TrEMBL record, chain A:
<keyword id="KW-1278">Translocase</keyword>
<protein>
    <submittedName>
        <fullName>ABC transporter ATP-binding protein</fullName>
    </submittedName>
</protein>
<feature type="domain" description="ABC transporter">
    <location>
        <begin position="4"/>
        <end position="237"/>
    </location>
</feature>
<comment type="function">
    <text>Part of the ABC transporter complex HmuTUV involved in hemin import. Responsible for energy coupling to the transport system.</text>
</comment>
<dbReference type="Pfam" id="PF00005">
    <property type="entry name" value="ABC_tran"/>
</dbReference>
<dbReference type="InterPro" id="IPR003593">
    <property type="entry name" value="AAA+_ATPase"/>
</dbReference>
<keyword id="KW-0813">Transport</keyword>
<dbReference type="InterPro" id="IPR027417">
    <property type="entry name" value="P-loop_NTPase"/>
</dbReference>
<dbReference type="InterPro" id="IPR017871">
    <property type="entry name" value="ABC_transporter-like_CS"/>
</dbReference>
From TrEMBL, chain B:
<feature type="transmembrane region" description="Helical">
    <location>
        <begin position="281"/>
        <end position="303"/>
    </location>
</feature>
<feature type="transmembrane region" description="Helical">
    <location>
        <begin position="61"/>
        <end position="79"/>
    </location>
</feature>
<keyword id="KW-1133">Transmembrane helix</keyword>
<feature type="transmembrane region" description="Helical">
    <location>
        <begin position="118"/>
        <end position="138"/>
    </location>
</feature>
<keyword id="KW-0472">Membrane</keyword>
<keyword id="KW-0813">Transport</keyword>
<dbReference type="Pfam" id="PF01032">
    <property type="entry name" value="FecCD"/>
</dbReference>
<feature type="transmembrane region" description="Helical">
    <location>
        <begin position="91"/>
        <end position="111"/>
    </location>
</feature>
<comment type="similarity">
    <text>Belongs to the binding-protein-dependent transport system permease family. FecCD subfamily.</text>
</comment>
Amino acid sequence: MILLQAREVSLRRGDRAVVSAASLTLAKGRVIGLIGPNGAGKSTFMRLLTGLETPDRGDVRLLDRDMGQIPLVLRARQLAFIPQDGAPPPPMPVRALVALGRLPHGQAGDHAIRHAAVDHALDVTGLQDLCARPASHLSGGERARMNLARALATDTPVILADEPIAALDPAHALSMMHLFRQQAGQGKGIVVVLHDLVLATRFCDELVLMDDGAIIRHGPATQVLDDDIMRTVYGVTVRRVAGAVLPWSLCR
Amino acid sequence: MKPAHQTMLLNVMLLAGVMGLFVTSLMWGETRIMFSHALADLLAGRHTAGAIIVERLRLPRTLLAILVGGTLGLSGAVLQGYLRNPLADPGILGVSGGAALGAVSVFYTGLMQVSIAALPLGGLTGALCAAAVLMGLVGRGGTLVLLLAGAALSSFAAALTTLVLNLVPSPYASFEIMHWLMGSLTDRTFTHVWICLPGVVCGTLLMLSSGRALDALTLGEDVAASLGFQLHGPRGVQTRIVLGAALAVGSCVAVSGAIGFVGLVVPHLLRPLVGFQPSRLLLPSFLGGSLLLLLADMVVRLVAVGPELQLGVLTALVGAPVFFARVIMLKRTVS
């Protein structure tokens, strides 16, 4: 079942094409990793997929409906978004902030705070013990989990996350990717922007590689990433070193 | 205690405080009256001195203290929530400056000799013109555009107000203008109440309707939009907030002059008591603003020695030390 589909979407800012004829299809239970160097257009493409921006050309369809035709509240019940640089959270309790994920369902205040979906989201992300703590006191890893919990509390079939592990140490990054994989296993469709190619390769069913606003390659990691693409797109050379702590290294 | 119960308790306490001060404000004043007799006369329609003092002097003044204080408190809470800036206050939109300019123009042209309503109507006209210019400038722009447009409008209105002061031929008129600009509720009548009421009611309703959007905005504009809130455009959250604050604050400044610090201090003091949730802060800020201004107005009336202290001066004298205290507390927390 196709949850989200972008068809040949393009967006220009002034004379510059930020996204050029990009297409993507997200099916139920899949994790798609959106990768590419800085400035490749990943975040803008993500905003087009979320409906935060409207493409100049092409269209985005959510559950087989044109994104532009879906009322904002209904859209919010079907698609949750975790932005790249979330605003620093206020000193509200973690549970109250996670409960904001119930707003698209018209639930606020104590009704939302007590909702089963909020409890489930806190359980899944391991935040139950921190739920009374002011969100401003959370570490980077805990904040990332809180943002995911807020998205899970909305209980949408689609989750879009823009660099959710960018500021996390390896353990927290792994934990987050496991959570995404787990959610996909329960039938959600997930698109996640990543710079960590090792985790992208390991946890994503499919990679979409962008460069200069266009999708260069897409498919399983083995078909998308090779030494040639690392050199041409990322500008680095892959050198395999026998006997080293890591069996490979990257160099300019 | 659950957050909702805590907020409800706070609202009940603030409401009880406002009601207590409302009655006290009617009872106490420069002229001593038997309040129970005055009230009985008023209800029976007898025009005794006590009834006239309560009906024509103290009641409109007290009602205006509630409306103006409440509006300033609520506007401060809404703007601080929307801009995610605890230093935002109603003056940031430039509409207060527009209202002041409108009122000062009435002084300058001598129109205030025509009717008692000329001054507040001039202020209201200035506020509405400023609000229209602000809305036109901001359009679909975001919070940064709003802040810049408000600062530009505020500076321009202040410059024009100074120009009027500079050009005014009579030193007495200058004194009157300066006195009015300090903010006061002295000698206000029901005419002033009726002039400010429609703007306050419409503006307050518009601002109160934005509570859930303010909660969502604590997570940033993109998340708020992805949670289903339309932020910009004619029916967007920004339009409701800016139009609501402009209407309500402009109407209040038109009748009371500029009263500072209420919109800044009240949300600051109450925010920790509602768990820092913007939507829970709105009603307490209205009630807290009313309470503070009622209290300040009673102090102005009862502790008057020589010329009556202007209300805006007193709120600034009280408000600034509150901020000093907050700075010291913040430094202690950080260290």
